[in-house]
């Protein structure tokens, strides 16, 4: 009797468990998703290249006198004016030479003037036959000799002045000190780099393009610029110059980019990424690229028997609170966004989170 009661109870329990499981299976699972409302937007296509920044005027000033550094008047990053003295070299001996040359010049000038006056007087007397031809020739020779000596004195003075002036390293134009290559009391040789000056008013960069990119770039095109050392900032430039020929060794084309953004954070020598806009489409339908579900399909050519693979792209949209898969055609992509050329309409709700777990016709719940 007890065994019969146990069997009956066990059967009842099994029936109840089965009913519970069947009830759970009949309850539809709702998937939580996030959506993107399709609207008309613009999207651009870019070519990418990298390069370093330089000033439009970027000059290294070299030493012209072999002497020690007496004084340094600037520091890197400092703004300077044209002809401002940046570095002074020891020049006492050069100053003495200039003073001697200056005195010799004054003496030569005075003697040339005196000889000219004497010759004029002798010339008048000669026209009156008051002096002999020999005396006149002596006056003329004296004038020519004095003039020659004066010219030599001027030449010596100019040389001495140039040597003295060369002991002062000056800024060739208004700009900023980019680098300083010497220290106080250091000996400088002729032709040794002393200081680098750049013009920050107009910065530029040279990039090199290859392949199809070469044919898509034109002067005046807009350029977006990013620098790894300046986070979360984007700068603007334009294509300034394009080389007329392709380098045969590298098969690349040199392109000069003018940086239009005025920002003191942009320094000469900085490495940047340059994005040249080659195509812009307005009034297009654009969605986040992760929303796409690519599928590779294979078709067999009946004539050749060869397999051809091609990709199709799908999206999930929401219709009446249910997920519906749509095949779409894609266009250009940029920065995580992609153009949809066919298959979507303005106002469609595209699933952008949950699209990889939802199924066709499944009920969805949109979350913010």
Q: Which of globular, elongated, flat, extended, rod-shaped describes the shape?
A: elongated
Largest beta-sheet characterization: 6 strands, antiparallel, barrel
Overall residue-averaged pLDDT value: 87
Structural class: alpha+beta
Give the helix proportion (percent range): 25-40%
- By CATH, the topology of the largest domain is conserved putative lor/sdh protein from methanococcus maripaludis s2 fold
Hey, roughly how much beta strand do the residues contain? 35-45%
Level-2 CATH architecture of the largest domain: Beta Barrel
- CATH C-level name of the largest domain: Mainly Beta
Q: Name the helix and strand elements from N-terminus to C-terminus, one letter apiece.
A: HEEEEEEHHEEEEEHEEEEEEEEEE
**Rg over C-alpha atoms, rounded to the nearest angstrom:** 43 Å
Q: Which strand order do you get reading across the main beta sheet?
A: 2-11-14-13-12-15
Count of β-strands:
21
Distance between the termini: 62 Å
Question: How many structural domains in the coordinates?
Answer: 4
Number of helices: 4
Q: Which stretches are poorly predicted, pLDDT < 50 over at least 5 residues?
A: none
Task: Describe the protein in words.
The chain is an alpha+beta fold and 368 residues long. The protein folds into four domains: 95 residues, conserved putative lor/sdh protein from methanococcus maripaludis s2 fold (Beta Barrel); 93 residues, Beta Barrel (Elongation Factor Tu (Ef-tu), domain 3); 57 residues, OB fold (Dihydrolipoamide Acetyltransferase, E2P); 75 residues, Helix Hairpins (Orthogonal Bundle), CATH 1.10.287. Helices cover 27% and strands 43% of the residues. The protein has four helices and 21 strands. The strands form four sheets. It has a six-stranded antiparallel β-barrel. Helix 2 runs antiparallel to helix 3. The two termini are 62 Å apart.
């Amino acid at each position: 009797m007890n065994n019969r009661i146990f069997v009956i109870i066990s059967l009842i329990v099994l029936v109840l468990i089965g009913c519970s499981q069947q009830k759970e299976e009949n309850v539809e699972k709702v998937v939580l998703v996030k959506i993107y409302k399709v609207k008309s937007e613009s999207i651009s296509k870019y070519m990418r290249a990298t390069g370093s920044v330089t000033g439009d005027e970027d000059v290294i000033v070299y030493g012209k006198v072999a002497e020690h550094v007496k004084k340094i008047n600037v520091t890197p990053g400092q703004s300077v004016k044209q002809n401002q003295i940046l570095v002074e070299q020891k020049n006492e001996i050069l100053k003495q030479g200039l003073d001697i040359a200056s005195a010799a010049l004054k003496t030569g000038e005075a003697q040339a003037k005196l000889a000219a006056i004497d010759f004029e007087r002798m010339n008048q007397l000669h026209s009156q036959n008051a002096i002999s031809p020999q005396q006149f020739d002596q006056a003329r020779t004296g004038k020519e000799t004095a003039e020659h000596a004066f010219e030599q004195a001027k030449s010596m003075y100019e040389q001495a002045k140039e040597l003295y002036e060369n002991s002062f390293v000056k800024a060739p134009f208004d700009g900023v000190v980019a680098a300083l290559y010497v220290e106080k009391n250091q000996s400088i040789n002729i032709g040794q780099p002393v200081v680098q000056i750049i013009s920050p008013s107009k910065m530029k960069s040279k990039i090199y393009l290859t392949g199809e990119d070469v044919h898509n770039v034109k002067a005046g095109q807009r350029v977006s610029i990013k620098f790894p050392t300046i986070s979360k900032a984007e700068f603007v430039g334009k294509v300034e110059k394009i080389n007329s020929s392709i380098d045969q060794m590298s098969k690349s084309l040199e392109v000069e980019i003018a940086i239009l953004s005025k920002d003191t954070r942009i320094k000469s020598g900085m490495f940047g990424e340059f994005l040249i806009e080659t195509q812009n489409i307005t009034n297009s339908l654009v969605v986040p690229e992760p929303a796409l579900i690519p599928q590779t399909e294979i078709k067999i050519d009946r004539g050749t028997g060869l397999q051809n693979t091609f990709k199709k792209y799908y999206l999930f949209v929401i219709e009446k609170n249910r997920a519906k898969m749509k095949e779409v055609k894609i266009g250009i992509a940029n920065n995580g966004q992609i153009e949809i050329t066919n298959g979507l309409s303005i106002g469609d709700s595209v699933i952008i989170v949950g699209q990889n777990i939802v199924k066709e016709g499944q009920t969805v719940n949109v979350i913010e």
